[in-house]
Model the fold of this input.
Amino acid sequence: MKVFDTVNKVELEADTKKLIDIMVEGRQVDLILNEKKSDEDGYMSWDVEHWSAIDKKRFIRCYSLEGRVLSESTGHNIYDLYNEFKPEEAKEVQLS
Done:
């Protein structure tokens, strides 16, 4: 999939595994979604997911809605990541 690097101002090709490796190396992956999502309780809605690595096996996801960063975040281990991190479903993928 096409990924835009906002720091180096270049476009590159990367699959999900490569994006995870990039996160572990210290970069953040932003998934701009096709439509707004909500959690199962209807507590929170978001349209951008910001993913980054804490270490090789732990990751954090923060959220934005309509340009505003939300205070909520979720933690994920490497196994959860393969169920929750879905860049192929995003409208746009960026590195920051």
Q: What stands out?
A: The radius of gyration is 13 Å. The longest strand covers residues 29-38. Residues 41 and 86 are 21 Å apart (CA to CA).
